[in-house]
Design a protein that fits this description.
By secondary structure, this protein is mainly alpha-helical. It is built from 4 helices and 2 strands. It has a single domain, classed as Four Helix Bundle (Hemerythrin (Met), subunit A) (Up-down Bundle). A two-stranded antiparallel sheet has the order 1-2.
């Protein structure tokens, strides 16, 4: 009887935990698909803006088109490598990888692509058992799962500004690609 009870407990635990693990695995798979679609759209936006318009700002206090692009790269790196990963955060004040200075349009697009590549590799190795680990996010407590969503929102936010900059320069932005 004792063996039957142990076997029943194992079967019950397995039947409950397997679907939960599958959901976690699906989250990463779905997130990576969304991230890749977001990359494609961002790169298309960056390629369509003429290089001579990369310094355009909607207002003096706004980021330029190029600064928005590189800021997205910095944020992708910080969220994925530092908050979700284990690498120390880059210092925005001293970092040169994500600064616009002395970079061509081609250099910036290459940097963004490389950052996405590194992020995908990092997320593929992400331990889904840490989704509920809590982090300090600008004074707010957020889980790692929430960090994934915050990163996606951040990319969309700054890319949206870049789309407006295109319109302000008389350009028609690329058609929105579904499932961003």
């Amino acid at each position: 009887m004792k063996h039957i009870l142990i076997l029943a407990t194992i079967i019950l635990c397995t039947s409950v935990s397997s679907p939960l693990c599958a959901q976690e695995d699906n989250f990463i798979k779905d997130y990576l698909e969304r991230l890749e679609n977001s990359r494609k759209y961002l790169i298309l936006v960056a390629e369509m803006m003429p290089e001579d318009k990369y310094n355009f700002k909607a207002s003096p206090e706004s980021l330029s088109f190029a600064e928005n692009l590189m800021h997205i790269g910095y944020a992708i790196d910080w969220h994925s490598q530092s908050l979700l990963g284990d690498r120390e955060s880059r210092n925005w004040n001293t970092d040169t990888i994500f600064k616009v200075a002395n970079k061509s349009k081609e250099d910036m697009i290459s940097t963004i692509n490389k950052t996405f590549d590194e992020t995908v590799k990092s997320i593929e190795k992400f331990d889904t058992n840490t989704f509920n680990d809590k982090l300090d996010y600008f004074g707010l407590v957020r889980t790692k799962r929430q960090i994934f969503m915050l990163l996606a929102d951040h990319i969309t936010h700054h890319r949206g500004q870049m789309l407006v900059y295109m319109r302000l320069n008389g350009l028609i932005p690329p058609r929105y690609v579904l499932f961003q």
